[in-house]
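During the reporting period, our protein records have gained a structure token line. A sample record is set out beneath this paragraph:
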Amino acid sequence: MVHVREMAGADIEAVSAIRVRGWQAAYAGIVPQTYLDAMTVEGDAGQRRRLFSQPHRTSRDLVALGDRGPVGWVCFGPCRSEMSGPGRAGEVYALYVSPDLIGKGIGRRLLGEAHALMKSQGFKVSALWVLRDNQRARRFYERAGYQADGAVQDDVYDEITLTELRYRRVL
């Protein structure tokens, strides 16, 4: 069983380990291996500290705690892209679970908590971006009520262009 709470500064190293290991597991065969191999927990933690310490940040971070400490993380806030539809839009910026615990309901729990908090903040819709080739993540989000809305964007990783699809759901 996991407990979800607001992320604290003391969680940054653990969250960075979850994020880096999550990328390396989820994106193997999708993102160039050279890019994945270059990722480090230390580098990610430095970036995360800078983001976390911004005085006027609008994002929120939650961690899922298991018997070994943080085992999952979600970050969300106002939607960063223009989106038509009913009311204000929120966005799930990132959701990662320790790779050895995927399929245990931790991601579903974190996403549910993020949805509840977005709704309490007045957001009517949640959006997120997912790599087109990440079939596992796409199935997860579709089971959570998200649908691709036709918007796409490209990201470049080590000179390889990968397409992301925007998904959305009503809160």
